[in-house]
Amino acid sequence: MSETEIAYMPASELAPKIARRELSAVEVIRATLARIDNVQTALNCFITVCADDALRDAAVIDQRIARGENVGALGGVPLHVKDLVNTAGVRTTFGSFMHEHNVPKADAVSVARLKQAGAVLIGKTTTPEFGHMVWTEAPLFGRTPNVWDASRTAGGSSGGAAVACAAGLGPIGIGTCAGGSTRIPAACNGVVGFKQSLGLIPHDMAPESFGNMSYVTPMTRTVMDTALMLEAMAGPHPADVHSFGMSAAGCVAAARGEGDLKGLRVAWRPFLGNTVIDSEVLKLTRYAASAFADLGADMHEMADDMEPTEPMWLVLSTALWNARFSHLLPEWRDRMSPTLLRQMAGGSAHTAEMLARAYVKRTELYRKIQGWFDHADIIVMPTLTRTAVPLQEALFDPIEIEGRKIDTVRKAWFPYTHPFNLSGNPAVTLPAGFHSDGLPVAIQLVARRGADAVLCRAAALFERARPWHQHRPSIAAL
Predict the structure, then answer these.
(1) Position 469 pLDDT exceeds 90
(2) How many Å apart are CA 443 and CA 381, to the nearest integer?
(3) Judging by DSSP bridges, how do beta strands 298-301 and 215-220 pair with one another?
(4) Would you say residue 340 has pLDDT above 90?
(5) Percent of the chain with pLDDT strictly greater than 90
(6) Rounded to an integer, what distance in angstroms lies between the CA atom of residue 31 and that of residue 46?
(7) Which candidate in 12, 96, 110, 157 is catalytic?
(8) What does the alpha-carbon distance between residue 219 and residue 193 come to, in Å, rounded to a whole number?
(9) pLDDT of 104-121, one tens digit each?
(10) Among 140, 308, 310, 403, which has the minimal tally of Cβ within 10 Å of its Cβ?
(11) Residues 388 and 434 sit within 8 Å (Cβ to Cβ)
């Protein structure tokens, strides 16, 4: 089997082949590492590659299989982990010079559970410093470009994970998402980005658990691989107050995409507190949404009743950043990302009353969104208002849509993502075609809180109706 065939084989096919000894885990890991070595200079999507550890762990998987042992649903599958998530014995930098040489003693819960399912860690993917923005760049490692067009951004903050999946550098990856950081780069690079219900995957690294809006998430190329990751990582853990009573049972069965969607109520929602979207993106996503009607769903269109949530999100986020990092500024300011420093400075003017008001508004938003599901089971919308912006785009400058300067990136490019970090609803980004500029376009599906299996089934049926995984970027280094 060729390296390219291995590179683009989903975990759902790779693990059974390894278990049947049609492929060895060592063979798969060696091919993946060789591919990373070939493209890392061009794509810059890894901060750390742990080749020796990966080959050692793969050899153990092969030995266990030879003894007739069950090595798990992901046995021998290459796994990459965003460098915001702890990995035992493997450097975890958070994209920051502060932690350039940090080596955790223990895995995060999500990593430990994937390893228990047999996944083999191959390395740590790029992230902006502490995941603070929607581009994937940091003083520690530089920029990560879009896999389809090196002049465009990979998105962020899980840009390294999305590029690695899209480039065939491991079929499954862990990302994180505090305002769209999984779904935005997934949309930019044409892969599947799933943000689960709050608490479904325990987040034992969240510095503040009770008001948490950050998620540890799957990043894959297929819905089934996402479901396999969800079932492996999910379940209660004492470190996450939201995790109790949560289960991903049924997600893998749902991701088989059997039957049709008769009886499912699907709402198409083209706007979410925004007024501008690229006309071609709107046309492509509207057409993509029509697949649900073709599958038998009852479709209707929702009018926009939202106000932009970015101001509320920014108060909550900058308060947390200042609480975590302001005392470190005297020592580290000169080696930190200017974009993080500028946002922290803006947040320093926020008062306790403003913070409490943001929490009140978050509760109002939660109740509003849950009310939408009185009339719909799935809500479909674009993921982004335009394709990936230029690589050199400035975080605080207006972005352009069809030649017009609109507003800053958080307000104008991804108004569709951060509301669901705040509300806790599951949301998945799926590839939905190509724009005339050659870049991927994506739709986002949202379900009621706790209905992650319902979301997996709708996503899998869409994937079957509008297949995408045959599309592969052209990478000059390969």
Answers:
(1) no
(2) 6
(3) unpaired
(4) yes
(5) 98
(6) 16
(7) 157
(8) 5
(9) 999 999 999 999 999 999
(10) 403
(11) no
| Residue 471 domain-assigned (yes or no) | no
Residue 377 belongs to domain spanning = 3-465
For residue 140, being part of any structural domain is answered with yes
Q: Contact 31/7 with Cβ under 8 angstroms?
A: yes
First to last CA, the chain: 17
Q: Of these residues, 12, 24, 82, 361, which one is catalytic? A: 82
Check which CATH number belongs to the domain holding 320 and give it. 3.90.1300.10
Residue among 158, 181, 317, 423 flagged as catalytic: 181
Please tell me the total count of domains within the chain. 1
- What tokens appear for 456 in the block? 């997996």
Q: State pTM to two decimals.
A: 0.98
> Is residue 477 very low, low, confident or very high in pLDDT (cuts 50, 70, 90)?
confident
Both tokens of residue 461?
Answer: 């049926």
Query: Is 473 a domain residue?
Result: no
- The rounded radius of gyration (Å) of the Cα atoms in the chain is 21
Catalytic residue at 209? Answer: no
Q: Any catalytic annotation for residue 326? A: no
- Closest to 226 (Cα-Cα) out of 475, 473, 458: 458
Predicted confidence at residue 478, as pLDDT, reads 80
82 is catalytic: yes
